Queue: 2 jobs
Job 1
Amino acid sequence: MRQITDRELKEASLEKLNADCNEIRREIFSTVSRCGGHLSSNLGTVELTVALHRVFDFPKDKLIFDVGHQCYAHKLLSGRASAFHTLRKRGGISGFPKRSESPFDCYDTGHAGTAISAALGFAKARDLKGENYEVIALVGDGSFNNGLVYEALNSIKILHSRVLILLNDNGMSISPTVGGMHEMLSEMKKTAGDVKIFERFGLTYRGVVNGNDLSELLPALEEAKSLLKTGSVLLHVATKKGQGYSFCESAPEKTHGICPDGKQAEYNKALGEELCALAEKDEKIVAVTAAMTENLGLGAFFAAFPKRAFDVGICEEHASVLCASLAAGGMKPYYAIYSTFLERAFDEIIHDVCAQNLPVTFCIDRAGVSGADGETHQGVFDLSFLSFIPNLTVAIPKDIGEFRAMLRMSASWNAPLAIRYPREGTEGAISEIEIGKFEVLHSSTSDIVLLAAGERCLKLAEEVRSAALNKGIELALVNARFLRPLDGALLSALPQKYLVTLEDNCLIGGLGDAVARFYRTAGIQKEIRSFGYGDAFVPHGEPKALMGEFGLDKEKILKVVEEMYARG
Amino acid sequence: MRQITDRELKEASLEKLNADCNEIRREIFSTVSRCGGHLSSNLGTVELTVALHRVFDFPKDKLIFDVGHQCYAHKLLSGRASAFHTLRKRGGISGFPKRSESPFDCYDTGHAGTAISAALGFAKARDLKGENYEVIALVGDGSFNNGLVYEALNSIKILHSRVLILLNDNGMSISPTVGGMHEMLSEMKKTAGDVKIFERFGLTYRGVVNGNDLSELLPALEEAKSLLKTGSVLLHVATKKGQGYSFCESAPEKTHGICPDGKQAEYNKALGEELCALAEKDEKIVAVTAAMTENLGLGAFFAAFPKRAFDVGICEEHASVLCASLAAGGMKPYYAIYSTFLERAFDEIIHDVCAQNLPVTFCIDRAGVSGADGETHQGVFDLSFLSFIPNLTVAIPKDIGEFRAMLRMSASWNAPLAIRYPREGTEGAISEIEIGKFEVLHSSTSDIVLLAAGERCLKLAEEVRSAALNKGIELALVNARFLRPLDGALLSALPQKYLVTLEDNCLIGGLGDAVARFYRTAGIQKEIRSFGYGDAFVPHGEPKALMGEFGLDKEKILKVVEEMYARG
């Protein structure tokens, strides 16, 4: 697509602007169809973004996208049209705002609820430095369920600064938005009802404006800009997720994130099936999600057990405490969540779930490098941040069969449990699992053993093993399916002198460290080399390529194995 | 104090109840004066607790204390009067609710904002199991700034259950409560103003009731109990922090937490002094706290630089994003916080601060075992959860002088920095510090070197060293003052074969693991033994005794050193 400049937008007729919107929408649709990405949210905010670029003056003014997945039109309008075909490719345009990519991206986002806090920080910095620019936070109604948004609203009166909050209300989180705040917003849309709640927080409220209609949006934004001279403003904008493409409008949850190869996630399907089967037998089983029902595979469970299934909105902390207390009240909760979003509930995992030793099962999806969404979505820290929490068991299935077995085992496990798995997987046998027991997949004639955790690393280990066999080196291979507890008996008994650990996690604080600590503490001499991700954030790209580039490279592992073999 | 039973309370005259309140108040005052603890909040809630025990039926009904530091009267009324003199002592009564201590404590708390979520979990479990009890969350107005409370309020309509929320409004967090919600609540107290915000969330609002007057409180609680039959209720109760003791009433921040030995914390004083001095020279410096101004030593900074000092209330996540964006906007933020409360901002440290590589300095107080507050306040995880975050530097001063030096160094450090330190400390020389450089304090004739991080462990290491010298073993000692980055040059050059690491942190994921990983990766053979806390939550007790009991015992370390020496 050609580069539309802000200058053009500022001078264009309404008709021309609408034509520009159509052009942008077509470009987004065709690029996402090819590269994957967030479709419906970006289609819904085209007019809003065009209007912002017309009314405000970027990058002098600061535009902060909450979550950030709705920034495509902004990228197209800020000098990145010709590069947009590289969307979500390694080295190409990120699907989220990136300061490193353009001065038009002033603040990186990826997780929900940060934009108003971030806007307040910029505004306060501006005030203190005596600078002159406007700060705008574009926040979806889904994020308005998140506690962080509330904390930011609460501090508007503390910080005495001026920001514009654009509430982009499409009635959706990833799942449909839920809860008391959602009902309030819905009522405002219908009757321009009770807006006092925002006024109480020091905001001048305006709305509701049709955010897909420039003729309404432009004057409303101009008014908001003018009100912004004297205080903070909330402009409530109603948009339609997927606007302009009927399939997206009718299936916004399915077209929130698009996977270009059409590949089905498999672990989440197994989660749904197993939980339904367990729940049939055990009335205590309940499922909790923070606005991700379908993506986590819980659709069937929610349909079959509506009274025992809770989507609490984008509230990862609350969901965690809710699980802890459901367990304290005698239930058996399963909390399904993406790896990086679980970081939000870190404190509650420690103090609410594990310090009380309550039987909550965390089903951690998108563990390991997840790919095209980039830094904020790479689940490469979970083994590290779960590794030191007392009372917690951490399991890493080798395939979907083993995942099913772990879920079945969990039903009778009366303590905190975390099971972490990637998006895609292959089926496999469902054998009985014992907590803390590894599995020897191959023994060896050489003095080298590979210890790998999780499906991807076990596959990689098998590849390394085959390649080594071709060179006459037979490696043992162990499925290290528990990070906590480790299989001390098996580790102690391993005859090999050399160990190579593989994990789809950062190296610091993960499996390699745990295995090395075990031997150090036991006073057993081993030579250990560990492979996992290095000490850097992993950007967007294709998962397998990222794995190789950031630390899990078959040839490098093979080289280490050969060196070990040569030393004997 | 004699045990007052709920039966007695249910039958007593108002006069008798008031006499009971006085007796409880005296017992709390005398015990806290001797054992330390939370004074003013407990004095403020005596009548409320007595009224709850009269109106409800514990432990069948469930009473959940937000934060939990206001549970003393409840403990006295639930079979623990004769044991109350052991308050906060190792093996004695905890200063917080503990399921392990009594069936009257149904849910453990310690960090703010969890009680309503927890109440909803219990209520939902009750509904699903067809049980019959009431659930009450007692929540201070300070917690009403916390996002978790909002997330819970938002889900009342999702969960369709019945809970009673007692809003205990004393106008204080630890610092005075601030922000938009506080202003709303204040207005309600004055004019019974706009209560719609609570009704929108599905709560029937009643109040404001004088929570220190049983003649108002008892009928209000009876009414709330009756309303609770059909839905959730919020009863707004005004109490006076420190009620009954004039010094506590006039200085609630000072009497929030009482230290029986009157010892002054020293690191926080240095923080205040250094930040003031830096801020004089650098207009970009700002300070942020989440409702802990005085306890963190920031009182002087807030007085001297009111426009550059922000107390955002109990909002650890928001404070973190605010710091990141202040930095993105060109400021130099210092975020002072207790170690365990920083767990709440874990996701934001990773994605807002470190992924964007922004110059935010985290001043982490109460690191290591902090003592009498127990599990939720022991700062024994921070080295582990900060160890794997890319771009972050983690510093551990050996004394207050070095802490001052690190703060001075931080002024020109343009990236994320965390400095962790305990409450108490000793002064020391202020020498220039270089990032990632350790300090050799003693060289040795033996083949053993101690690597210790932080004041407590360096003191312990000196004690071990003296004791070893008495046995003719001279140990080297290194001040390992950075966890990230380690001093690779120094570690590579250490001539000793044996290393002993000491850290005031859990062993998993801390300094010992980092040092071992360094040598493993570098292919250097060392024999390493690590001392720190084991894989268990550390309960309440006296810090030095807890250190010994949970992993940092001088005699045990000495024994390991002697064994190493004997092996040669």
Note: Chain B has a mean pLDDT of 94.
Job 2
Amino acid sequence: MYPVLERIAYLNAGSVGPLAQVTVDAIVEGRRRDLEEGRSGRPYLDAMFAARERIRGALAAELGVPPENVALTRSTGEGCNVVVAGLRLGPADEIVTTDVEHFGLLGAVHASGARVRVAAIRVRPAGEAFDAILAGITPRTRLLALSHVAWTSGHVLPIHELKAETGLPMLVDGAQSVGAIPVAAAGLDWYTISAQKWLCGPEPTGALYAADPEALAIAQPTYFSQRAYKPDGSFTPKDGAARFDSGWIDPPSLAGLEAALAVHPPWRFERAAEMAARCRALLAERFDVVTEPGHATLVSFRWPGDDAAEAAGRALERRVAIRDLPGTRWLRASCGYWTSDEDLERLLTCL
Amino acid sequence: MYPVLERIAYLNAGSVGPLAQVTVDAIVEGRRRDLEEGRSGRPYLDAMFAARERIRGALAAELGVPPENVALTRSTGEGCNVVVAGLRLGPADEIVTTDVEHFGLLGAVHASGARVRVAAIRVRPAGEAFDAILAGITPRTRLLALSHVAWTSGHVLPIHELKAETGLPMLVDGAQSVGAIPVAAAGLDWYTISAQKWLCGPEPTGALYAADPEALAIAQPTYFSQRAYKPDGSFTPKDGAARFDSGWIDPPSLAGLEAALAVHPPWRFERAAEMAARCRALLAERFDVVTEPGHATLVSFRWPGDDAAEAAGRALERRVAIRDLPGTRWLRASCGYWTSDEDLERLLTCL
């Protein structure tokens, strides 16, 4: 199903997932159609809009939420900018985040102009994250912005517990969770999807869940945001979260994403968790593993040498794809339902 | 070179351009590589960054500006949002625009929160645009935001003359100019490119020229914006306009865009102007043509019937691709260097 697995022990879906044959077939077929029939006209546009709605539904199902609460984006970072810019915060406001976040979230947080409080959880046991994040909250906190699964440590953060405890607006970076572990976004405020990672879609594709779309300003309108507009740019937004749709996605990529979403088996989460646990146990025999047991599908571990980037490069030469985490000496292996025992053996052998 | 032309009189590059065989070949080749080799690792990323820099250079050349003043975006609308949000305007500020603009520009203008003054030029002779736009300027004007070639009327707006006269910051929507007519962005402040139209690139691709990148706030940071960042999201921007690079473009699309940019012949502008003039003359024999002679490569004309959208649909059924302009009874034909006399004959025959 995933041809790259025949050549490479591909343990890097946390960066970008493997592509299925049917996904690339759909893209190629779509581009051939574009080549011969052109990229315009009512039937072409109608098919594009219909594909967007089917994908909106499929991605909503990944989060267990209604399609009308989901916007189509092209990355988690885009979703984060939509939310944080739409909140119109200023220097008197505060955002609480953590020190295990990706720049896709942090850049938006910084651009808000709000004061940013960073909970230090990276070098603490996962069980201490809840209290460390709570300690950052003040009466001026307007937003909690954090990931569901940390791209660095691989730990699951207690997002639902934090929401229940604080009731504060919460933006969740779902880049390392959706497609990797079961996700239920209901009860949260905003939740992002990176469809090119664990969902194995073409890049750049993604989505943004918004519990209450009408409550957020549209800071970055696109042609997809509006149903009608006036010459001064004032406009009637589309109903629901579609008003935050972030821009054109080429129809071949839409077809590829639809194909990608259709191939995942019902046992994907159990199998991925099992392989991640096995990967962790094997690595723990020889390395200092950062990721505690029982979290998600990323396994980070300390590289004993000086240069983790060089180690990742050497592994790739031996057809094992993992990544280093800049600014640390950590390496990270990503396990999916597609990961085999042989992939793990090859990882251990090559290190 | 453009297979769609063998099947369709494709007169709709103002929406999306025809794709060259080499462009689609490059995309397909890239996706096959992704399928078999995976989408990660240092060599993969290095090649992606190198392709971005080559394309930055090629798109800068289209505007006659240095590459360090060009950001890679995925649409004109994205570029407009980058600029207008970065200016941090408020209700005490004013933006002057016109009534021939696309929502890609207008949406950003509206979202700024500034007061918007709309110069009425759509139903006036093109020669009156200069005075009509000047009349909208007040001491509170912080930005002129307008297109180089109006997507509706097809008229060239006097952007350089307006800049010389007013000295005001100017954002130019270049969606209907770059690749269609010669463009020199030097002397202007911001200028957008839609690479999927007249440059015949894959969508969504584009660029933004910024004369003074350091002077504009980074309102929507992306991973490409920064050279280094801290846990609170504060970051060291990349040098030059690359700080406004708007997000991931898949390497197959980068390869496709590079191929697309390489096929345009040196005589493209002269030939496109010649075909547009011929198209205009033929249409004027039977229709009330909106676009005055001697403008760009769009020719808009009044459809004598009630339903221009239906007329465009019927034309496509007869393998002639033109478009209607919503809210008017206008139809629009787009002529490129690839347009043949036979295409124009088929247009006239089918109407």
Note: The first strand of chain B starts at residue 9 and ends at 10.
